[in-house]
């Protein structure tokens, strides 16, 4: 009688050792999706991806780039502007670009998808402008991978009660 080896099943779910690979948890799963989405970003200053989720379902996605149909930064050039934060630090941003979080919100609006009481996974913590919009559309928890000037949003986080939680995407 032929006996099956333990080299893994046909779906490839077993590792080379024959041990089952560890299944991704939900937080890692959505953060990995956000990283995949960030690979569509076109602003040369940084690639960010965002996924809006409720009850473990993806409602909407976004990455940073120019408005639809307009030239992207990787085809023209970034147009950089500088702004000074009240604490005196100078920040540089690109005029061409819509941030990933706002594009995810826009995609939901375009298709009439409610995102109230949803969560968002972003490859980097939001800037203060995006955070204000995330608060107003009813996002409950922001999961981020890389910190970006969190000191600029600390007060707004405290006053609004929106949660900010770091999730690593090391296993993607
Ligand atoms: Zn740009
Ligand atoms: Zn932003």
UniProtKB/TrEMBL annotation:
<dbReference type="GO" id="GO:0006220">
    <property type="term" value="P:pyrimidine nucleotide metabolic process"/>
</dbReference>
<feature type="domain" description="CMP/dCMP-type deaminase">
    <location>
        <begin position="25"/>
        <end position="164"/>
    </location>
</feature>
<keyword id="KW-0862">Zinc</keyword>
<dbReference type="GO" id="GO:0008270">
    <property type="term" value="F:zinc ion binding"/>
</dbReference>
<protein>
    <submittedName>
        <fullName>dCMP deaminase</fullName>
    </submittedName>
</protein>
<dbReference type="GO" id="GO:0005737">
    <property type="term" value="C:cytoplasm"/>
</dbReference>
<dbReference type="InterPro" id="IPR002125">
    <property type="entry name" value="CMP_dCMP_dom"/>
</dbReference>
<dbReference type="InterPro" id="IPR016473">
    <property type="entry name" value="dCMP_deaminase"/>
</dbReference>
<dbReference type="Pfam" id="PF00383">
    <property type="entry name" value="dCMP_cyt_deam_1"/>
</dbReference>
<dbReference type="InterPro" id="IPR015517">
    <property type="entry name" value="dCMP_deaminase-rel"/>
</dbReference>
<comment type="similarity">
    <text>Belongs to the cytidine and deoxycytidylate deaminase family.</text>
</comment>
<dbReference type="InterPro" id="IPR016193">
    <property type="entry name" value="Cytidine_deaminase-like"/>
</dbReference>
<feature type="active site" description="Proton donor">
    <location>
        <position position="101"/>
    </location>
</feature>
<keyword id="KW-0378">Hydrolase</keyword>
<dbReference type="InterPro" id="IPR035105">
    <property type="entry name" value="Deoxycytidylate_deaminase_dom"/>
</dbReference>
<feature type="binding site">
    <location>
        <position position="99"/>
    </location>
    <ligand>
        <name>Zn(2+)</name>
    </ligand>
</feature>
<dbReference type="GO" id="GO:0004132">
    <property type="term" value="F:dCMP deaminase activity"/>
</dbReference>
<dbReference type="InterPro" id="IPR016192">
    <property type="entry name" value="APOBEC/CMP_deaminase_Zn-bd"/>
</dbReference>
<feature type="binding site">
    <location>
        <position position="130"/>
    </location>
    <ligand>
        <name>Zn(2+)</name>
    </ligand>
</feature>
<keyword id="KW-0479">Metal-binding</keyword>
<feature type="binding site">
    <location>
        <position position="127"/>
    </location>
    <ligand>
        <name>Zn(2+)</name>
    </ligand>
</feature>
């Amino acid at each position: 009688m032929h006996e099956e080896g333990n080299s893994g099943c046909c779906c490839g779910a077993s590792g080379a050792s024959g041990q089952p690979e560890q299944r991704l948890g939900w937080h890692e799963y959505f953060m990995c999706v956000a990283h995949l989405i960030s690979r569509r970003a076109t602003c040369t200053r940084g690639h960010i991806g965002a996924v809006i989720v409720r009850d473990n379902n993806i409602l909407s996605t976004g990455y940073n780039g120019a408005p639809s149909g307009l030239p992207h930064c990787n085809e023209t050039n970034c147009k950089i502007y500088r702004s000074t934060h009240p604490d005196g630090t100078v920040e540089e941003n690109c005029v061409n670009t819509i941030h990933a979080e706002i594009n995810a919100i826009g995609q939901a609006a375009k298709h009439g998808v409610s995102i109230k009481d949803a969560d968002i996974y972003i490859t980097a913590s939001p800037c203060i402008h995006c955070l204000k919009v995330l608060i107003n559309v009813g996002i409950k928890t922001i999961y981020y991978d890389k910190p970006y000037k969190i000191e600029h949003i600390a007060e707004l986080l405290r006053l609004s009660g929106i949660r900010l939680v770091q999730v690593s995407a090391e296993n993607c």
